[in-house]
Amino acid sequence: MTIDNDMQTVRDRALKKLLTHLSDSVTDQWDEIAPFQSSDYHDPALAELERDRIFGEVPFIVAHSTELAGKNDFISVELPRNKAIVIRQKDGSVKAFVNACRHRGAELVTEESGKCRIFSCPYHRWSYDPDGRLRNVTLDNTFGDFDRSRFGLVELPVAERHGFVWIIDNARREIDVAAWLGPEMDEILAGFGIDRLVSIDPHTYRRPTNWKIMQDGFLDNYHVKYAHPNTAGKMLHTNAVAMEDYGRHFWFLTSRKSIDQFIGQDVTWDPSMVNHTIESCFLAPNTMLLKHATHIELLTFRPVGADPNESIMQMRVMAPTVEDSGLAEEHWEKRWKKNWDILISILHDEDFPILDGSQRVLSSMDAGTMLLGRNELASHLFRREVRRLVETAPEA
Ligand code: FES
Ligand SMILES: [Fe+2]
């Protein structure tokens, strides 16, 4: 990272800009208003391109490493192109496989998570080792001879970095998370120390809503006081963002209302500023990471197959372990349960009804041209990357 991108410099620059914005009631902006059509969220041909050219080509997060902490711990995940299993190996690494038996394709793992020394197929009881090797073919004296080494589980490219498990949803690709993140975002995530935190009770939601509407909804700092007047809108500022654009990913600073005490003052970023600000990272193509004073939230969005009308949202809270927090276990549990209860009620009562409604009415044939304002900078940058990926023809 260059001196110019040193995080102290970045945070200080953003803080000063944000305070000026708040004083002038303005925000960072995109160059122009962008008109768009409802077909962006309904077109099956576009949804197919997004599935293949986005999720089939670039790394995205599917878990925090502590969700599969021990040997043989696994999770099953529904990705846009594959149903997959991710499993911790004997040597501590992770592997990912398509969750389909190589005999006649039965679903191998039906649980969301667990610990498994052997994958045993429910249909004819073929079995596989945790490293994907085909171990046993039942009644093999009658089945016939074949090269078993070629019929292990199909492997997907997976890697761990910054405490997360990343996948490219395409068996024909290789994964390089650092290269995808680029030096700036790689350094920012390293600085957060997310690998020392624990993922507390991750939540998965299947939504009747296009994944981009979902992602936009959680990049949006314009709706805060209007859609959440009695919850988030009470604590957080609306429509005030200081952006650092890294070309593909971006970082931005927003604020709590407690920052108002510093408006008009010549302040420098110091560690206490985490109490008044939220650092957000958009990790292309589908992830929002929010750094709060006490914890990190991670929101991921992905389509269900090539269906433009359905998506999976995952929400994670990562915080210091009971030991690192210095709290009594009971207190720790109470604290994060309360945190989750608040998040869930805002999601269910306030965000989901609006976002689901958008998906419903945007199926109207005459919905008309809509507008993304200059103030909605994060959504412009998200669109820029989606467009770039969709327009890039993949290698064979
Ligand atoms: S489909 Fe798995 S053993 Fe037959
Ligand atoms: Fe919201």
TrEMBL record:
PROSITE patterns: RIESKE (PS51296). CDD domains: Rieske_RO_Alpha_N. Keywords: 2Fe-2S, Dioxygenase, Iron, Iron-sulfur, Metal-binding, Oxidoreductase. Signal peptide: none annotated. It comes from the Bacteria. Its cofactor is Fe cation. Residues 59-167 form the Rieske domain. One of its GO terms (molecular function) is 2 iron, 2 sulfur cluster binding. This is Phenylpropionate dioxygenase and related ring-hydroxylating dioxygenases, large terminal subunit. It comes from Rhodococcus wratislaviensis.
